[in-house]
Every structure is written in structure tokens, then in C-alpha cells.
Specification:
The chain is about 40% helix and about 15% strand. By secondary structure, the chain is α/β, with parallel strands linked by helices.
């Protein structure tokens, strides 16, 4: 968001929601943008461990997953414990993580890697990102054809279906599966989700706007975030772990999510705070029981730029 965008957004919020609520949300947005420039100008965002330097066969990316929320649901899953190992991510947004993870420096490794991706920023390969899509052994952009318009996101079961098919029927050294959950929109906040998707004069109220304005409690937002995590674990991760053979599986995230820590809500590029940069690094195994047969057929879909932008806005990116 440019400064001009912030000014327009701020005017809209103050006019629509009043000087206190609208102004408060605008102030938080300004702080996030200022902090991003501060961290980046000093090079403080240039930290983190590159996942391609670590040992794994199958890497499951749970977008925006924090270690503490994973610990909260650990008792419900055999492969989790309340003591969740952590890693410092190379990015605090998906854009930053992708740009710094998929580089020509790792071209040989990526040529033997399948990337099953639900995150629309993969559209930037060969454009904003130097690494080109043909540099992967396989790039399956599930978000292009597996998008659920009603829920405004690519569901985890669709991503898992494609991941199982790719893993069973290809012979790459490594597979990366990039789920969108627990990233917003949150499935349990149907009423809030509808209001946050309402567009007036080109503006939308995100979950973070609602939090900043006091229209959504922190407890309700956290519970919805935790529910989205259960969604991806139940319908995505569990399905994969029972239907592929992989000796070294890792559950991690591209970045975290802020719920008010240091005045941050959501996530911002270049911001090196723990809520955004500390991610899980949980190791487990997978065994193919043959209990699931994939049914989703990949499609070669050429989406208009406006459609891609709409899908990113549905995820809270303006």
C-alpha cells in the first residue's frame, strides 16, 4: 500500500466508521507501514533459515501458522506435541518468503521439486520474482482452478487431493505443499466474513480492521484462527499423512500472524518481530494406506488480472 492508498483508505474509514474507530484503524495501518520501512532500511529483516537448506522429503506449508496456536491444538493430533519446535522464517509475508526461498541459487534443488501451491502470489514467478515457473520440477497452481468462490479461498481438501496425486505419480526428490489455512478468511466467522467482504467505494473491512475498530474481540479472532488451523489439519494434513509415503515430513509456515503484538495486526513485509517470523518446524512421517483416491483434475486456466487481484483481496491483500 502506497502512502496515497493509505490516505484514501483512512479518509474512507473515518467517514464511514467515525473519527475514533476509523482513525484508530488508520493509525494502526500507518504504524505497520512505517515499521516495515524502518526494519527494511536497517536490514533487520534479513534474517532467517532457508528451508531448502534443511532435511525433508515433504514440506507442508500452513500459511500464517504460529507455533503457539499449533501447541494449543497439539493434544488433538498424534504427530504434534505441546513443545513445538520453531524456525525463524526468511519472510514475514508470503510474497517475501517466496521471493527469498525460490531463487536461482537453489535452481538444481528446485528442478527436482514439485510445488503444489494454493497461494496466488505464485503468479509472480518470472515477473516480480526472478525465479521462473519452469524452474520447478512441477508447479501446480491449485488456486487457479481449485478456488471456492463461496468461501473466498482455496480449500485444504482440494490442495491435499492434488498433493496426493502428484506425490503418487511423480518421482521428484522433494514435494512442497502450500496450504492457505489458517490464513483468513476464517470459516467460523461467516457473518464477519460477509461484512468484511462487502465492498464500498472499492474498500473492504478485513478481520484486522474489525479488530482495530473494536467490532471483533481478540478472543473471537483467535478462536477463528485456531478453527482454521483445525480445518487444514483435519482436511489437509491428515489426509496427506495417510495417503503418501514419505520418511521425513515437515509441518511449517511461510510466516506468522500478529494479533496486536507491538501494535501489529495481520502481517507486513520486512517486519522482523517474533509473531511474524517465528514459525513451527514439526517433523513426522507419512504412510500411504490407500484410503483416498484423488478426484480433482488440474486445469490450465488463464485468469484475468482482475480475477487474480480479486482473489488476493479476498485474502486481505489490497
Amino acid at each position: 500500500m502506497t502512502f496515497g492508498d493509505w490516505v484514501d483508505e483512512s479518509k474512507f474509514k473515518i467517514r464511514e466508521y467515525g473519527p475514533y474507530r476509523g482513525g484508530r484503524s488508520a493509525a494502526y495501518a500507518f504504524w505497520g507501514g512505517a515499521a516495515r520501512r524502518f526494519y527494511h532500511s536497517l536490514g533487520l529483516d534479513r534474517v532467517g533459515t532457508h528451508v531448502l537448506d534443511r532435511d525433508w522429503d515433504l514440506l507442508l506449508i500452513l500459511d500464517t501458522c504460529r507455533p503457539d496456536v499449533l501447541a494449543e491444538v497439539a493434544a488433538e493430533y498424534d504427530y504434534l506435541s505441546t513443545d513445538v519446535p520453531e524456525l525463524t522464517s526468511v519472510g514475514s509475508t508470503s510474497w517475501e518468503w517466496m521471493e527469498r526461498t525460490f531463487t536461482d541459487e537453489y535452481a538444481d534443488e528446485l528442478a527436482e521439486t514439485a510445488y503444489v501451491c494454493a497461494n496466488g502470489f505464485s503468479k509472480e514467478f518470472g515477473r516480480a520474482f526472478d525465479f521462473r515457473p519452469e524452474g520447478f520440477g512441477l508447479l501446480d497452481e491449485v488456486w487457479r482452478y481449485g478456488w471456492d468462490d463461496d468461501r473466498g479461498i482455496c480449500p485444504p481438501e482440494t490442495v491435499a487431493d492434488r498433493a496426493i496425486d502428484v506425490h503418487r505419480n511423480t518421482d521428484f526428490d522433494r514435494t512442497i505443499v502450500h496450504f492457505m489455512q489458517p490464513h483468513a478468511p476464517y470459516r467460523s466467522l461467516d457473518a464477519v466474513g460477509r461484512s468484511s467482504a462487502e465492498e464500498r467505494e472499492g474498500h473492504r473491512r478485513s478481520v484486522w480492521d474489525l479488530l482495530q475498530m473494536g467490532d471483533l474481540s481478540p478472543e473471537a479472532a483467535w478462536e477463528a484462527y485456531r478453527d482454521n488451523l483445525r480445518w487444514v489439519l483435519d482436511d489437509g494434513v491428515d489426509l496427506i499423512l495417510e495417503n503418501v509415503d514419505a520418511e521425513n515430513v515437515v509441518l511449517t509456515s511461510d510466516h506468522g500472524e500478529a494479533f496486536g503484538e507491538w501494535g501489529f495486526y495481520g502481517h507486513f513485509r520486512h517486519v522482523a518481530v517474533d509473531a511474524l517470523r517465528q514459525v513451527p518446524w514439526v517433523e513426522t512421517t507419512a504412510e500411504d494406506t490407500g484410503s483416498y483416491e484423488p478426484t480433482v483434475e488440474p486445469e490450465d486456466v488463464d485468469l484475468a488480472t482482475s480475477v487474480v487481484d480479486d482473489r488476493l483481496r479476498a485474502l486481505g491483500y489490497r
